[in-house]
Amino acid sequence: MRVVFLGPPGAGKGTQAQKLSSREGIPQISTGDIIRAAIKGGTPLGQEFKRYNDEGKLVPDELVVRLVADRLTEKDCKDGFILDGFPRTVPQAKALETLLDQKNTPLSAVILFDAKDSVVVERLSGRRTCSSCGQVYHVAANPPKQPGVCDKCGGPVVQRKDDQEDVIKERLRVYREQTAPLVAFYQAAKLLTRIDGERGQAEVESALAKVLT
Questions:
Q1: pTM exceeding 0.85
Q2: What is the chain's mean pLDDT, rounded?
Q3: For residue 44, which of 59, 76, 190, 194 sits 20 to 30 Å off, Cα-Cα?
Q4: Is 55 a residue whose pLDDT tops 80?
Q5: What domains can you pick out in the chain, each with its CATH number?
Q6: How many other C-beta atoms are found inside a 10 Å radius of the C-beta of residue 45?
């Protein structure tokens, strides 16, 4: 199973990717996670990413594709993978298509998790993250037992800058702008299926299972 999960931040694709990864025994590959790991590890690619981040510039598609291509060569991807939030642009999608065609391992499906901007803002602005271990909470749906303290490791639980309302709205604007042509690209390839990301986790998981059966 080789699938791409698309959708705005906060639509639930990360949660569903984790569940599917656990159930199928294939890795969830989040470009955000591997970029942060590469920067932290000081790898050559990580240093290039850090330079773009420090200068406030967009990371070129070619650099992101190289990072994903390296990740897909690892042993745990042999039986499949879930790409969470990649590709983000049509050039990235075309590069991924070429990469997978060379291996004769085309995508099985592309899932678009739909959610209105108002729902996304409500979900993300309430999100809190442990700055030590990365455990995620929500002030209404899943708060830590002790305010500001991680249940898992005791680290400080904070609101990331990315989860502040003005930043969320800008992320959504960029997402909508980038994703419209990407959705059309995968529709034309007859790979895209839409799932209502505003429903409860169990309902979304059930809908996803039907699509991927």
A1: no
A2: 90
A3: 76
A4: no
A5: 2-115+177-212 (3.40.50.300)
A6: 17
